[in-house]
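TEACHING EXERCISE
Course module: macromolecular assemblies
Task: Read the component lines below, then compare them to the predicted structure of the full complex.
Student: A.B.
Group: 4
Components provided:
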Amino acid sequence: MQGDRRHLKTDPWRIVEEGFDPRFAQASESLFALGNGVMGGRANFEERYSGPSLQGNYIGGLYYPDKTRVGWWKNGYPEYFAKVPNAAFWLGVDVRIDGEELDLAAVGVLDFYRETDMRRAVLTRRMNVRMQSGVEVAVEAVRFFSLARRELGVVRYSVTPLNRAAEIEFSPYIDADVRNADANYDEKFWEEVSTDGDAVHSRLRKSGFEAAWAQRVVLDGEVFRCDSRPGCVRHTAVVRCEAGQRVTLYKYAGICSSLNHEPGELVAAARAVAADGAAAGFDALCREQEAAWAARWHSCDIGIGGDAAAQQGIRFCIFMLLQTYTGVDTRLNIGPKGFTGEKYGGVTYWDTEAYCLPFYMATAGPKVARELLVYRYNQLGKAIENAAKLGFHDGAALYPMVTINGEECHNEWEITFEEIHRNGAIAYAIFNYIRYTGDKGYLAEGGAEVLLSIARFWAQRITWSEARKKYVMLGVTGPNEYENNVNNNWYTSYIACWSMRYAAEAVAWVRENNPEAYAVLCAKRSFDEQTETARWREIDRNIYLGEDRELGIFLQQDGYLDKVQTLAAELDPAERPINQHWSWDRILRSSLIKQADVLQGLYFFRDQFDAGTLRRNFDFYEARTVHESSLSPCVHTVLAVQLGLMDKAYELYLRTARLDLDDYNCEVAEGCHVTSMAGSWISVVEGFGGMRIVDDTLTFEPRLPEAWRSLSFRVDYRGRVLAVRITAGRIRIDVEGAPVDVAVGGRRYRVETNIELKTE
Amino acid sequence: MQGDRRHLKTDPWRIVEEGFDPRFAQASESLFALGNGVMGGRANFEERYSGPSLQGNYIGGLYYPDKTRVGWWKNGYPEYFAKVPNAAFWLGVDVRIDGEELDLAAVGVLDFYRETDMRRAVLTRRMNVRMQSGVEVAVEAVRFFSLARRELGVVRYSVTPLNRAAEIEFSPYIDADVRNADANYDEKFWEEVSTDGDAVHSRLRKSGFEAAWAQRVVLDGEVFRCDSRPGCVRHTAVVRCEAGQRVTLYKYAGICSSLNHEPGELVAAARAVAADGAAAGFDALCREQEAAWAARWHSCDIGIGGDAAAQQGIRFCIFMLLQTYTGVDTRLNIGPKGFTGEKYGGVTYWDTEAYCLPFYMATAGPKVARELLVYRYNQLGKAIENAAKLGFHDGAALYPMVTINGEECHNEWEITFEEIHRNGAIAYAIFNYIRYTGDKGYLAEGGAEVLLSIARFWAQRITWSEARKKYVMLGVTGPNEYENNVNNNWYTSYIACWSMRYAAEAVAWVRENNPEAYAVLCAKRSFDEQTETARWREIDRNIYLGEDRELGIFLQQDGYLDKVQTLAAELDPAERPINQHWSWDRILRSSLIKQADVLQGLYFFRDQFDAGTLRRNFDFYEARTVHESSLSPCVHTVLAVQLGLMDKAYELYLRTARLDLDDYNCEVAEGCHVTSMAGSWISVVEGFGGMRIVDDTLTFEPRLPEAWRSLSFRVDYRGRVLAVRITAGRIRIDVEGAPVDVAVGGRRYRVETNIELKTE
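Instructor-supplied answer key:
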């Protein structure tokens, strides 16, 4: 796609596309994708479309173990990469007008309008088209994934002949005979179990997950002809319409998987969902949808005054996050593309702990956030097996870089075996969750066990250097993936030692506060607190952490200063992003950094460093960071705000908030960057809103970009909903629920219902 | 394959297998493989064999650009991996006895004998089998690739019914409808052009190389029925034989490729080769073969007294090298498996320069050795393109890690972009060639141009570290591939600086000795000697070369001493080879070394280091080296002999010389380790024979292992053939040709016809 990549209109609550341009068709499929936290799909048209398109419908938690593709095998590589399968296309409604197929790639599009109403997660498309035959018709298609009924998808599809009478044929179908575009060896993931009338039942090869889809179609007074083939059910009806007469098809699809039903009952379950939906009717389902979404927005909306593009950008981020994960099922997690595309396989990365958790904690409440922790707790056994495969022992756990069921899927040695800081992020998430929610009890209910298993890993992975007389961490890849297999990556070593310290605190807390759980833990994990924590402390005391005293900075890794010190600002813009223009060899040897690395550590452990240290490291590393990961600018934004570097903060923020809407990286056609959207939320709330927990108190140090008149956001904090509104020099906080203590400008206040304060 | 992997008999001049054990069938296909330097093939049976088998016939210089298989694409990766295609099975003779197929997997094998006579490269197989029908037959099959006629293959196949009369059906065929077992995406490489009577003509997809095969079959008085299908020509004749009557089929196959013929003339050429072969007759061809091979052996045989296994081992190494490359064609080179298997694609590695060149220099003469240099000279343009792809400029050359046509084929970033020491080996080969042959003129005829292009690469690849105030070499992989992306690998930095020094010397020599060539060189390569060599010298003077002064050793790389210092001797034998038992992660972090790294440098540049330095480095690194590359023990053997560590030297030698015959690594079924066989030769001649060039004089410092009574070898040195015979305390040198100066025990002698001296 060349030229202007912005094809959407700015609107505070809607994503709007006016006019049809096939060049943007695939981008819009991503941007208008819908989901309800357990399933979702790309905004493919209901009717046939013969232009370039990536069909995508996804059911969270199902996966196919796709045979690994690898250049040169290394011991310890996984055999497969788990991929979320592209599932049945349940939306399908083939439409023929006087026998001619309605296909936007073939007919004349006179008028085209599409919007997602983010307030209620409903996609509406209206268009007027002229068929080859000369008949013009108006089409309106409305769809949503029900948030109230998680197995129901709904379509309303209306056609009105405009300039003369016409015969309209509707042929709603569900096609389970689908493939993944990214299958490594062109394998078909699904096999048909049965196709019967209105329902199709399929099984995923190898993994054995099953799913069934059933459709109930309603078109006033019409009788449908059933016309199925294996893997595809279809009903067809023909209606004679006068000019100006609108005919409307309703389609209710039940989508059920073996995650929630016995295989033998899947077809019946899917049929029941569809039938119940039809019985409730479209309008009632719409009202349910509006109510369910209103409740979601209540605790998490962000308002930005004076910057319409920023307003739409941040709402879109929140909206996509809400669509992707709702915390109803510990087997689910947040894939980097959510339900908007196949890329990255729909699997779980450290993005969840490092970037997504704060959003869900603050908007969906502790229960949902805790589900994300429990997801990893449930996979602890696999993390221990994973570490054992690499030669670690005694219950050391290495969580995978990429997973869907706890097993490692990634197979590039420099990532799989070396990008182990992910283990630190998983420990940090437990700390962060407890810090925000106050739910220390989680330590006794899984937290401490995960922490001690992670600490055991670090204690083995860190080795003693006789030459340095220090503990060292050899052969790691830090968050900056533009360098691999380095020694003593500061971030990794720091978070490793922090993990060990925190694990020691955690087990001590459990011992003191829940002796029963402590006894179980010690027995289950053969844990000898005194010996093991002594070892952790010994490593922590003697770890090598690189520093350059002259520059006053932490060293990203051994030898970093030996590199030719190129600054991002010196780059020819034509060479950016460097990962598309430079050889890998040149990238590896340059001082340029893909994403926050040392600064990721300063962000996580902000309280442990003074402002001077932060400033020196920020100035040094920000100048060398190219932000070629969508996860990078948000961390720098938060730090820039804390340092009062507002121009820099705003510049960085712009790179994250409308990344997909404006398709900065020319890749939104593949799907949206869902996990990085949580980073945008962090930029706003923790950055400009200055929200942090300091000394167990909710603290605000707001600072707005010049372009913003106001910033308001809502967060769920320990059972209350706080509505925060920041304007130049002022902050107002309204509280629903019990009174809460907050700190602003270094002073503490008890807020009963609301408070309004001056800020600097 | 379980249990005893030795299935061959020890014999000084023969490879002998007695009895048929299907478990060894594929290993024997590799070990009995034949070749004539331009083509060759595995020892598949002529008759059908339905047991496990890897069919393999290879024509040197042809390749198929097989689509690359990669985990995660990196900029700068090649699009394809060039592979030597498995070519037509020209040997085929289907045999039926009274209508029953002769297939060793189906009949009773009463008696089985197979030998390669290494003196003449003829494979003979004799066996008695009992068919299901009860008839017993004796079979004798003899084959060779003609060394005198490089496009001719010959088979003589005799059958004798033993216990009763039988009807013998011979059906000799050539089947070009073949595939590679290692095709990345199961693509078929060849497509048929035509099949006509006795000839088949095929074309390689993508690369467009063509080849034709024709057979001429002779069976006294019999008329053959021609019975071909596309891609496969076949002639069938049936003979009625009395018991005890021997019937013999002769098959002459012409094998011609578009490397040497116009495509339109290929079929005619192949027919002419076959017809000429048939006209000469089997016995005459055999005599030609014996004469041609006798000439080859004359300058290169090695005799070992008192150690029959070692004797056979070293002859097998020499034999395989002679079969693989004869220097008749600069487009050919030495693939790691020669013509014995598909693995490693039959392409060229740095093995050629670092390991193979000394053998060919000393046994095949300067012309053949020079062909190996010219091979790289001819690919210089591609090496410059390759460097440009990685961002290098101004005619800097980076030779590929793996190639067949000059383009890089390897696509693991840590090798492709980082294992750049290969460039140093290519420079060293020029030096080594000139040192041995005295042919300085080669500098003006291509050598200097290659050297300056390599020097330009190093001058760009080495960067200035402001932090160290030294030049550094970041992001490399040394010969020890058990560590990747390291900084300041001593070997790489050392050979890089040496390359620049030698390049400066080389261009100065050309300037002084061949001003005309110098002018052409400067113009062609925009070479400003003064400026560029000044830069090379500046880097050389200020390069960082790691050393540990306390240990008195060179440091393999930055941080090497930070590793936990595990010694190879401490390993549990059950964990060896570690590359089959340890995770890659563990290997990377261990101090264990795959193959000579610092010691490779001490071997190449032996004269530049004193014995104490050699000893300290040898003791330190040998203790940490697991020798899991077939290329490793030979270098350590040479150094151990120089240090007088004879037990160590002999122990290391045993790991290399019979690697394939005894199948130490359980992988000979895939093919033989041809390039490492040149390492075995180095062990013997440079190691125990102590042959080196010192101060332009051929020098011997022999030291025999205790187990050896004598060692004799022949080398071609500057136009003479020297026969050297070493016994305990004595050396005798016979010279054919002009008198030659040699040095033994620090003293120089002129040898007119022979000399016999005491050695310590």
